[in-house]
Amino acid sequence: MQMSFFINFDAEDMLRQATMSTNRYEQGEALSVLDGVPIAIKDEIDCMPYPTTGGTKWMHKVRGCKDDAECVRRLRSCGAILVGKTNMHELGAGTSGINPHHGTTRNPYNVARIAGGSSSGSAAVVAAGLCPAALGVDGGGSVRMPAALCGVVGFKPSFGRISHSGILPLNWTVGMVGILAATVEDALLVYAAITSPKSSDQSETAQAKLCFPLLKSPKLIPNIKLAKYGEWFNDCSDDIRVCCSQALAKLYNSYGWKTIEVTVPEIEVMRLAHYVTIGSECNNSIARELEKLNKEELGWDARVALSVYGSFSSQEYLNAQRIRNRQLQIHKRIFSKADVIVTPTTGVTAYTIQKDARETGELDYINGVYPDPGPCWSAALVRYQIAGNFLGLPAVTIPVGYDMSGLPIGLQFIGKPWNESLLIHIAFAMQALCISEYKRPEVFFDLLGK
Fold this sequence. Notes:
The chain starts with 5 loop residues before the first strand and ends in a 16-residue tail after the last helix. Helix 8 crosses helix 15 (420-434), helix 9 packs across helix 11 (300-309) and helix 9 (267-285) crosses helix 12 (314-335). The strands form 2 sheets. An 11-stranded mixed sheet has the order 1-3-2-6-8-7-12-13-11-9-10, sandwiched between helices. Strands 4-5 form a two-stranded antiparallel sheet. It has helices spanning 11-26, 59-62, 70-77, 120-127, 144-150, 184-194, 230-233, 238-255, 267-285, 287-292, 300-309, 314-335, 357-360, 386-390, 420-434, and strands at residues 6-8, 38-42, 81-86, 106-107, 110-114, 133-138, 153-156, 176-181, 225-228, 258-261, 340-344, 395-402, 408-415. The protein is an alpha/beta fold. It has 15 helices and 13 strands. Helix content is 35%, strand content 15%. This is Fatty acid amide hydrolase-like. It comes from Nicotiana tabacum.
């Protein structure tokens, strides 16, 4: 159906994995509950036997894929069937998922709309029912944003919780492996599979003990406090504002969870500091390759993005880190009053794909990631994403409804560092109140025939 979900896949390899899984089940030796479950991998993560392109035409030529990433190796050891490499925005440098080299990933809820980015293919294959879960990489909302636009769960753990081994080093202080899944339970299973108490490449910084919640009842944890910055929360489309406000009312009416008003100052400053950080790190990580690269191998939008990235100075990068430290202290004070921060996941729902953008790529100054001369918070797709990446906080988005056009709306919870267990429990509680109203997208493959 020309949905451009995948950059690469191998049917024979899939069937080989499936046959091995079937044999294990027949012998009563299934490796885990994930044995035989199809899971897709964003093409920013090493997964044999495929090259890792990062959404480009050239990355795999200068950086070979010789082994599985640590997170992929763990999934493989659980018996998961790895079904291929999903499409993404080129170099992760955009929010639409429009890729001039590998095709534009289309939203299963409306094929004329974007799937979001940069983990566009991973979100779309889950929404379309092809996989119950997929891996993405979240450097600036790149898991949560497409998850919200495609009506699935998007979960980004604390920075450092999952090994970075085998991930394209495009943004080493903000990028993080994340999970896109059909349900919170599915996300938890994959999270449990790919994380570990201590990964070999993690620093010696103290981490809270790794634990997983028992998702038996959403009412097990009383007195949850949700921090909401009203002016920021409401800076979205009317459909999103009403839908997300109704979701908060459901949490209060069903569980007694209260929302407290807070202020998150300097949000626009933080967004620009994050942009300087992620852009500087991306440009630095591939600087040698860019010197030798024929610019015609890059999409037009990636050329513009990299040109901007290369203009940032070391002083600007250092100033951004000072802002990062300041925001860490601000958020620490907020978390002394509340368990999580709650926001819409995006400020708009999925917008229409323009014909010319399919050939050239797209920079959308209003809906996308890039700074613009207009009013603050004009980057409507990313305005709620930044703290999770810039500050390394865990965050999750849950589908909570639809706009007037039937496009999905997500609600986001941002948690304290290393507090994934509580965050997952809160997400599960929200899902329990909304799941009966979930709708199948117009493009859906019922693999179980139910």
